[in-house]
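Mods, move this if it's the wrong board.
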Amino acid sequence: MQKQRLKLSRKDKERYAKIRHLDQVQRLDPIDFEHFIGYLYERQGYRVYTTVTSGDEAIDLYLERNGINAVVQCKRYGGTVGQPVIRDLYGSMIHTGSQEAMIVTSGRISAPAEQWAAGKPIHLVDRYE
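Not the wrong board. Structure tokens:
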């Protein structure tokens, strides 16, 4: 799978810095949402890589920080992310040899998905976080 370092223009960074409300996030197109999430992880000190749009094997972003590698799936949803999405992401984490996985959604994470992820190195971030 091909990955490349996330490159954001000054204009994009300024625009992302102004996002404060969920309705602003929901108006982003899916690729812009991925870049916004990458921007947020960069601000937390991660080195962020994007994948090619098609054939990404349930991975939208790769993160590196302090020798730890993680894969991220971004879901700009109004609804709920279910257990199958979490299972697919976990499989991608194992397949790539990453130590962690993150699902980031503008929607909600279902209770069965939360239960399935419990005890695994999967971080669930939804509209409430």
